[in-house]
Amino acid sequence: MKAGTKFLIGASLVVVTVGYLMAVGVKETGVYFLTPTELAQRLDGDSTFYDLGVKVGANVVRGTVERDVATQTVRFDVSDGTTSFPVVFRGLPPDTFTDSVEVVVEGRYQKDGVFYATSVLAKCGSRYEAVPEAGA
Amino acid sequence: MTLLGNIALWVTLLLGVWGAFMGFAGGLAGRPELARSALRAVFAVTAAVVVASIALLTALLGRDFNVEYVAAYTSRNLPIYYTISAFWAGQKGSLLFWALIVSIFMTLAVMLAPRRDREFLPYVAAVCLVVVAFFASVMLFASNPFERLAFVPQDGSGLNPQLQNPGMTIHPPMLYLGYTSITIPFAFAIGAMMSRRLDVTWLHAIRRWTLLSWLFLAVGIVLGMWWAYVELGWGGYWAWDPVENASFLPWLVMTAFLHSVMIQEKRGMLKKWNLALIIGAFLLSIFGTFITRSGVISSVHSFTQSNVGFFFLGFLIFVAVASFWLYTRRLDLLKPDGTLESMVSREAGFLFNNLLLVGIAFSVLWGTLFPILSEWVRGTKVTVGPPFFNQVNIPLGLALLALTGIGPLIAWRRASVANLKRQFAVPLFTGAATLALLAALGVRHFYALVSFALGAFVIGTIGQEFARGTRARHRQYAEGYAVALMRLVGRNRRRYGGYIVHLGIVMLFVAFAGMAFRREMEATLKPGESAQLASPFGHTYTFTHLGVSQYNELNRLVSAASVDVRKNDKRVTLLTSEKRQHVDGFGRATFEPSTEVAIKSDLLEDLYIVYAGSVAGTEQTVYRFTINPLVWWVWAGGFVLVIGGLIAMWPGAGSAPGAPRRTEAGYGVTLAAREA
User: Fold this and answer.
1) Three-class SS of residue B638?
2) Residue range B600-634, pLDDT digits in tens
3) From the CB of residue A81, how many other CB atoms can be counted at a distance below 10 Å?
4) β-strands B519-525, A54-60: how paired?
5) Rounded Cα distance, B95 and B172, in Å
């Protein structure tokens, strides 16, 4: 067999391996990224969704953040304007987390109507920029 | 100053467009007077961009808060060096900074080009001028750093506290230097295609530039890791965030190019591939800017969402279509001079190395874009995170590490069995011995074991290469071993610099594997109370909470929590983690409180302590204690990598591929040593 042919076989093996790793990776670690309304719709149609880990992107509802430092628990409501639900997170939220940011919470929505988050990412457009105010 | 800045931007745009036309026309029509005009435009545009930059710096340092950008990023009490770093801290300023670096690089490229590369220069100038003019147009039409407010704020908003970190003042410029310096190799690639001079001349012309941008990207990435580690407080240094991936992608493609270019120089193969890699690296650098600036992919790093992203998307599509069209028209000039003779050859090793690097880059790109792709295809957004990237890239990365050890041991063209035996004995033994030793010590983590064993294998390879080369010089020229080693490296800088880079890569892999053994706990402590955490190295740490103190600093209120650290009951140190509330000149709070992590680092492990807060009304304080093994080796590995890169890049005889006699002579010496 010519070296070129052998190389092509080896190369296809590499390509197939990369493709396989990616396919399996997406299947095993892919997580739905939904808005609260989309999550509610899916839960209506399919109750298996309760046990599925999902990510939800939404705004924190102003004034709903309760921090319990002793138990390291944060509770807050998230909303996309139509649907809202409470989130409970045990752990240290990032410095940028406040009651006026957009968050991405990852976790499970349980039948008690609470979203138990395993991670909270705070995303805010003004993270590196503050808006100057008139008269300030 | 803003008027001057705006005028300078207009001059940049108009002269840039003019110069680009002159460059392309002068080159294609073979009219030297037009080409000269393009080169003069390079200098004029650079001067204009420098004037604009001085105007912005003057506004920043003069605290002219009527300028929106100044008000948004600085305040009266911001220290002067952070005021200067505000130049590139925000969207608008960073666009100007970017234009400034491309301008400086294109001026250098034009001035430093040797006579044999003159033919490319009109095109190089034209391509660079298109890029600078593009940045000027983005600033003028979408994101102008010289925009004024309708009022004059008494004070600015200040710089985000997370950017008030020495690492953060140089991390973005390093990345920008890396991204922008890819423009020069890309411009030469376009020049080579347009002038139809597709022999190795253009590859020699861009060799230092590709190494330079590879090096800047590496420094930028490592500094970014360091910043994330000390400033963000989540305990790690790499999170596979889209913005991090955006800087990693061009680096991977450049790494592939730095290897595959050697096959083209030695054997005249892979001409199409190399050209495609350079174009791909440039496109990825624009793509990176697009995803960081547009907000199409949610990232914790994102700048404000703005229409700037669509300018970049448009530019990306334009560059992609134009270069692809030109590329397809030149395919007939890119036929290979040689073919692969054996699967057991250096060429085959490089080919697989390239496949793996591009495969890694593809999977990172795919994972980064997956939310968008899945929404297009299936209508639902699905995201993949660190588990995906780790699951895919750890095996690929380890295969690549194995090749790092194998490649240098195999001869070009075709390796004989005798050659293989002689070459592989020592490295294989080093790797196997390390594996046995670690397994005997009780290390059971599969990937970590493989990383350490492969790392040892690669170090065996590198050590053997250095030892044989030194011994050969010692015998042949009767030099002392130290002198022989210095001259060996000095006379074959590209090769041995490359090995030193490999050593840095091994150190990085070892450090990454160390993170498999991290230990973490949270504890709520009253003053005097302790928590204990066992290190993966066998000893136990005792952390005793001493108390929280509060005081004022220039631009912030600080709450500092102190911990006494004991290792197996022997006192080690006192560590203090802070919560900072930044304030403006009037004492009002700006930004959210930020956390300063306490870190104690040694060769084995890092203690990483986060003060998470105090329970209101009590003396209880919440901490997170983390032991991160081998993190020191990330920074050391980065340092070694940079040293190796600098050695490979250092100008003069012994580094240039255009001096084949020297290189071959060095090579001959090593071969002679192998025969002996």
Assistant:
1) helix
2) 999 999 999 999 888 877 888 989 999 999 999 99
3) 10
4) unpaired
5) 12
Q: Which amino acid is at B297?
A: I
* Six-digit token string for B421: 């035996």
A25, B391 in Cβ contact below 8 A?
A: yes
Residues in chain A: 136
Q: Is A11 on the interface with B (CB under 8 A)?
A: yes
Backbone angles phi, psi at A107, to 5 degrees: 165, -155
Structure tokens at B162: 């997370």
Residue B222 distance to chain A (closest CA, Å): 21
Optimal mutation site among A29, A34, A46, A123, interface B, most CBs of chain B within 10 A: A29
Q: Please give the Cα distance from A55 to A117 (Å, whole number).
A: 9
Nearest to B508 by CA among B631, B358, B363, B644: B631
Burial class (CB in 10 A: 0-12, 13-18, 19+), B196: exposed
Tens-digit pLDDT profile for residues B48-99: 999 999 999 999 999 999 999 999 888 888 888 899 999 988 888 999 999 9
- Per-residue model confidence as pLDDT tens digits over B210-247: 999 999 999 999 998 998 898 888 888 998 988 889 99
Q: How buried is B290 (Cβ within 10 angstroms: 0-12 exposed, 13-18 middle, 19+ buried)?
A: buried
Tell me, yes or no, if B234 comes closer than 8 A to chain A by beta carbon. Answer: yes
Total-model pTM:
0.90
- To the nearest whole angstrom, how far is the Cα of B257 from the nearest Cα of chain A? 17
- Among B340, B367, B593, the residue with its CB nearest the CB of A7 is B340
Q: Is B517 buried (19+), middle (13-18) or exposed (0-12) by CB count in 10 A? A: middle
- Alpha-helical segments (H) within B330-385: 346-378
Cβ of A122 under 8 Å from any chain B Cβ? yes
Q: How far apart are CA A115 and CA A83, in angstroms?
A: 13
